[in-house]
Automatic annotation (TrEMBL):
SUPFAM superfamilies: Methylated DNA-protein cysteine methyltransferase, C-terminal domain. This is DNA methyltransferase. CDD domains: ATase. It comes from Saccharopolyspora terrae. The lineage of its organism: Bacteria, Bacillati, Actinomycetota, Actinomycetes, Pseudonocardiales. The keyword Methyltransferase applies.
Length: 95
């Protein structure tokens, strides 16, 4: 994976406004990638300085090991979960 790919993913994640979310697949599409899994891999390595909490699974759930912190950060931005899920139709960012 090259640096340009990392930077495209980082740029998309950085552009998600507070109170909005994208799925890993959305980020992949906007970054010109074919794989949501690749986005997940990049994010696991290099997004500590980005609003990583705004990227979710396509069904609105979060990773179990990040659950509490991610939902807390989203709640602070007005993104509310119901039964542990974010309503993607309501909070998804559309450019």
């Amino acid at each position: 994976m090259d640096e340009e790919t990392f930077e495209r993913v980082r740029a998309v994640v950085a552009s998600i406004p507070p109170g909005r979310v994208l799925s890993y697949g959305d980020v992949a599409e906007l970054a010109g990638l074919r794989s949501a899994r690749l986005v997940g891999r990049i994010m696991s390595e290099d997004t500590a300085d980005l609003p990583w909490h705004r990227v979710l699974r396509s069904n609105g759930t979060v990773a179990d090991h990040l659950r509490h912190r991610q939902l807390e950060l989203l709640r602070a931005e007005g993104v509310l979960a119901q039964d542990g899920k974010i309503a993607m139709r309501h909070y998804r960012w559309t450019r």
